[in-house]
Specification:
single chain; mainly alpha; elongated; transmembrane; about 200 residues; Mitochondrial carrier fold; about 75% helix; MCP_transmembrane
């Protein structure tokens, strides 16, 4: 039953499901992401300059009190785009990278192939998602932007294309390892559920 369902699901359906789940998940998680970005920005303040928040719980309360409850969803648009696109990029690229590796003589569907495919999925996710991630973080950290497009255009104009890939290596380290663990776990769960040895 599980095997039939997996085989009958097209790549388009998988990508659409990944887009939808990524979007729904971030609607719930946006306040936490906003607080994380704001607290990280406070860590960059010069010595002696007091921060706005004493910790995460205080940040939630202060943002809601001073900016309104809806402010906890600041940057939701680019955050939905980021999460949906990264989910879709991970899913589509994992399968594609894995199929490409399996065409190389000597490679079989084993842990090494799954690790390489997971790293490939992480690489593609960072390549595709970094510009959206940068815009999302800037909008969450600076409330003077009026729109996602304004933030994108100002970043492009003043800093150039490479501004959208700042932090590429640490981001790849995070998403690459995340994808390796996620897809290795997925492959093992799939074998267990389908009864494969």
């Amino acid at each position: 039953m599980v095997r039939d369902l997996a085989e009958d699901t097209s790549l388009f359906q998988k990508v659409l499901a990944a887009l939808l789940t990524g979007a729904v998940a971030i609607v719930v998680a946006n306040p936490t992401d906003l607080v994380k970005v704001r607290l990280q920005a406070e860590g960059k303040l010069p010595a002696g300059v007091p921060g706005r928040y004493s910790g995460a719980l205080n940040a939630y309360a202060t943002i809601a009190k001073q900016e309104g409850l809806g402010a906890l969803w600041t940057g939701l648009g680019p955050n939905i785009a980021r999460n949906a696109v990264i989910n879709a990029a991970e899913l589509a690229s994992y399968d594609q990278v894995k199929m490409t590796i399996l065409k190389i003589p000597g490679f079989v569907d084993n842990v090494l192939t799954q690790i390489l495919a997971g790293l490939g999925a992480g690489f593609f996710a960072v390549c595709i998602g970094s510009p959206i991630d940068v815009v999302k973080s800037r909008m969450m950290g600076d409330s003077t932007y009026r729109s996602t497009l304004e933030c994108f255009m100002k970043t492009w104009k003043h800093e150039g294309i490479f501004a959208f890939y700042k932090g590429f290596l640490p981001n790849f380290g995070r998403l690459g390892s995340w994808n390796v663990v996620m897809f290795l776990t997925f492959e093992q769960a799939k074998k267990f559920l389908t009864g494969a040895a």
